[in-house]
Design goal:
Blueprint: H1 2-17, H2 19-38, H3 40-53, H4 62-94, H5 96-102, H6 109-139, H7 143-164, H8 167-174
Length: about 180
C-alpha cells in the first residue's frame, strides 16, 4: 500500500499544478453554473404548477439537479477521456512512464493507469459535489430539502463508484 500512496500523492500534486486540469475544472463549473441558471425557469414553472395543484413544494428545487445530470455526464466523460490521454501522454514524454512501470512496487500497469485517472476524477467529483451542494443550499429554503438533495448527490456519485467496480464496465473502459 505504500507504493500506491506514493502514486496517489504524486498524481494529486500533478493535477493541482496542471493548467489543463484547472481549465477543465473551470469549464465543468461554468457548465454547471449555466445549466443551473437556465434551469431556474423550469424550477419556477414546476413550483407554480405544484403550488396550484396543492401539492407539497418542498422538493421542487431537486428539478435543477435533474437538468444538471445529463450535462455533467456528457461533459464529465469528455473531460475524463481528455485528461486520461493527457496524463498518459505527459508521463510518456517526461520519461516517467517507463520508470514507473519498471519500478518494483508490485503494481500491475492497469492499476497504475486507474490510479492516475482516479485521482484526477476524484478531485473533479469532490469539487462538483461542493458546487452542487452550494447551489442546492442557495436554491432551497428548507433545510430538509437541502439535506435530501445532498444525499441524492452522494447517491449519484456512489452509484458511479459501484458501476466502476463491475468487471463488465472495467473491461469496456480499458479495452
Amino acid at each position: 500500500m505504500a507504493g500506491i500512496s506514493v502514486i496517489v500523492r504524486k498524481e494529486v500534486s500533478d493535477a493541482m499544478s496542471n493548467k489543463a486540469f484547472l481549465l477543465s475544472l473551470a469549464v465543468l463549473m461554468l457548465n454547471m453554473t449555466l445549466t443551473g441558471a437556465t434551469s431556474s425557469g423550469t424550477y419556477t414553472s414546476y413550483f407554480e404548477n405544484e403550488k396550484a395543484r396543492g401539492n407539497d413544494t418542498t422538493t421542487c428545487c431537486l428539478i435543477i439537479i435533474d437538468t444538471l445530470i445529463p450535462h455533467i455526464k456528457v461533459l464529465g466523460a469528455l473531460v475524463a477521456i481528455a485528461y486520461g490521454f493527457n496524463a498518459i501522454n505527459k508521463e510518456r514524454t517526461e520519461g516517467n512512464l517507463k520508470v514507473l512501470l519498471s519500478y518494483p512496487i508490485y503494481i500491475k500497469p492497469d492499476p497504475l493507469l486507474r490510479f492516475t485517472i482516479f485521482t484526477a476524477l476524484s478531485a473533479l467529483f469532490l469539487s462538483g459535489y461542493l458546487g452542487l451542494s452550494m447551489l442546492l443550499s442557495i436554491a432551497s429554503k428548507d433545510q430538509k430539502t437541502t439535506l435530501l438533495g445532498m444525499l441524492l448527490i452522494i447517491g449519484v456519485f456512489n452509484s458511479y463508484a459501484f458501476i466502476s467496480d463491475s468487471p463488465r464496465y472495467v473491461l469496456y473502459v480499458w479495452c
